[in-house]
């Protein structure tokens, strides 16, 4: 259920997943900075911030029922998929959890955008 109104109830799962993914990306960002092979993770670490920001903005746009929220969610799904792909290249526990979180968020964003994933 929406926090203040019921306007966005039908989108609540996507809002929640976007918020969860953003938080996860920032946590994983910090965790990867502390890995001994941090140099090998340069591109991977960079995408965490991008993905986190996209997820935060998607959550905001959905919450205000913005005109272009679905378009933004489509792009958010693409970025979450890329982040999940990068995460999957590393076998640490936090990277595997990232793969899962980003994948779930991407799926919810595609649903929000009305996209069938092929």
Automatic annotation (TrEMBL):
One family name in Pfam for this protein: Csp
InterPro entries, per database record: Csp_YhjQ, YHJQ-like
Name recorded for this polypeptide: Ferredoxin
Organism listed in the record: Clostridium pasteurianum DSM 525 = ATCC 6013
Source organism phylogeny: Bacteria, Bacillati, Bacillota, Clostridia, Eubacteriales
């Amino acid at each position: 259920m929406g926090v203040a109104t019921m306007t966005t109830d039908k989108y609540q799962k996507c809002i929640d997943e976007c918020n969860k993914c953003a938080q996860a990306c920032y946590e994983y960002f910090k965790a990867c900075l502390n890995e001994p092979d941090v140099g090998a993770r340069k591109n991977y670490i960079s995408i965490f911030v991008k993905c986190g920001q996209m997820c935060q903005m998607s959550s905001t746009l959905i919450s205000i029922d913005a005109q272009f929220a679905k378009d933004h969610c489509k792009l958010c799904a693409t970025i979450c998929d890329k982040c999940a792909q990068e995460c999957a290249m590393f076998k640490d526990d936090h990277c595997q959890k990232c793969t899962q979180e980003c994948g779930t968020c991407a799926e919810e964003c595609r649903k929000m955008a009305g996209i069938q994933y092929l």
